[in-house]
Amino acid sequence: MNELLTSAQMRAIEQAAFDSGQATGLELMERAGQGVIEAMFEALPDLAKAKAKALILCGPGNNGGDGFVIARLLHEMGWQVSCFLYGDPGRLQPDAKANHDRWGEIGAVVPFADWHVRERWGGAVPVEQPPSLIVDSLFGTGLTRPLARDLDEALRNLASCLPEGKAWRVAVDAPSGLCMDSGRPLDPENDGELPSRQDLTVSFHRLKRGHMLGDGPEWCGRVAVADIGLNQPALRAARPALREQLSDMVQLAEPDKRQLRKGGEDYPGAHKYDYGHAVVLSGGPGRTGAARLAARAALRVGAGLVTLAAPAPAMSECASQLTAVMLTRCNGAPDLGTLLEDERLNALCLGPGLGVSAATRDLVLTALGSRRRCVLDADALTAFAERPQALFAHLHSGVVLTPHAGEFARLFPDIWARFIACPEQGPAISKIEAAQEAAARAGCILLFKGQDTVIVEPGGRVVVHAACYERAAPWLATAGAGDVLAGMIAGLMARGFWPVGAAETAAWLHAEAAISFGPGLIAEDLAEELPAVLRASGV
Known about the structure:
- By secondary structure, the chain is an alpha/beta fold.
- The chain folds into two domains: 243 residues, YjeF N-terminal domain (Rossmann fold, 3-Layer(aba) Sandwich); 256 residues, 3-Layer(aba) Sandwich (UDP-N-acetylmuramoyl-L-alanine:D-glutamate ligase).
- Helix content is 42%, strand content 17%.
- The strands form three sheets. Strands 10-1-12-21-20-19-18-17-16-13-14-15 form a twelve-stranded mixed sheet, with helices on both faces. It has a seven-stranded parallel sheet with strand order 4-3-2-5-6-9-11. Strands 7-8 form a two-stranded antiparallel sheet.
- Strand 2, helix 4 and strand 3 form a beta-alpha-beta unit.
- Helix 14 runs parallel beside helix 15.
- It is elongated.
- The two termini are 23 Å apart.
């Protein structure tokens, strides 16, 4: 279950289930409602004990139908339930209408007609007896436009009546107002501020892209995936059209940990050169720290040998700080060319602390001309900000670019401008589409850093590493963390990992090291935490 679906892909899977007879719409709706109940009580155990009041906010589509099922099931469990409908009950789709009517036999369905009047909420949400639960079952994954003004005002009024912490908030598939293909709020009038944050968002069958990308984690709270009985492999086998629709499905990073092992059947008594020799280029005096971080990380991740290539004036500075990492002099591109005559040097890392200059550009082009596997980070990217095509013309499939947002904007300003424009309708351009376009233009692997790191091959294959929810790693927001990541990628490439595999595995290890170390983390700690992470992973 490590796939991220678009809204269209999820609709295609559901339609294939209907067409094949695997499930009816009513059956899926019932399973969805039951799945939300189970997920809520598992994730929020205090809620299971409450059996108090619930407000269920139902929308005009099938997501609203799920809400009516939830209302009925909670009522059967002894909850006092109030149900609100945004839309005309006469225009509900048949399955949603059936569940609307089933609820109507139990309790009232209150229209949203004048929800924007705060006093109306005063009657529905008495301060002395507030609800324990508010369920947002308004739109789900299908929302493609900003919330209507009256609905937006109503939800904000509700939030003001019940400040966060006074009631559990649960969203069915998606918090209202969030584009689930991008994780971006469709809210140009409120600077991306949705009416309220959820405590839990329950997705069906698989996570959607918006749960992991952009602002999605901030608004979703926690996420749970409810199994609604869709046999995706069987559907793909039976429906050729579905196979095509799912061909570009995005994966969550989940590295093959066996590749990280040393020794065993593959390398009994292996020599250090069997694990490669990485070279990290350093800047001059006073600017060697970033490269030293990268070199240490390359060694810790398992490269057989690591050499730091530094200008002559910086040699003593580096020598005083390093022991296991070897040193060599590199005063410019000619020295690098001579160094690379040794074919055993099989992976390069350029950028950390290298400086933004013509000399850096020459070093990068020399490295690329050697056709070695190479990671370009930081200054190696910024040095080409004025002429990115001069870099792109020399990139190849063995190169990994690792830009953060600022570096991405400098190399791909047109893509960046479209990416950050406030979306007025969905699906909004996501970090995935932005990275795919950039990787295709550059002709190499691109690792677009962030909480939602996106790794893309030039052909379009995408893997997402999201450091959020239970894998949140806020301590990575520290100077030098990106330099360590670049070194990890170089070290893994030296070991023989394919560049994209090195990028995926390094992103995972990077977050795991931060999570393992925890509060107080600084960049130096990341490489030193790797042995514990590797042991915990069974390596």
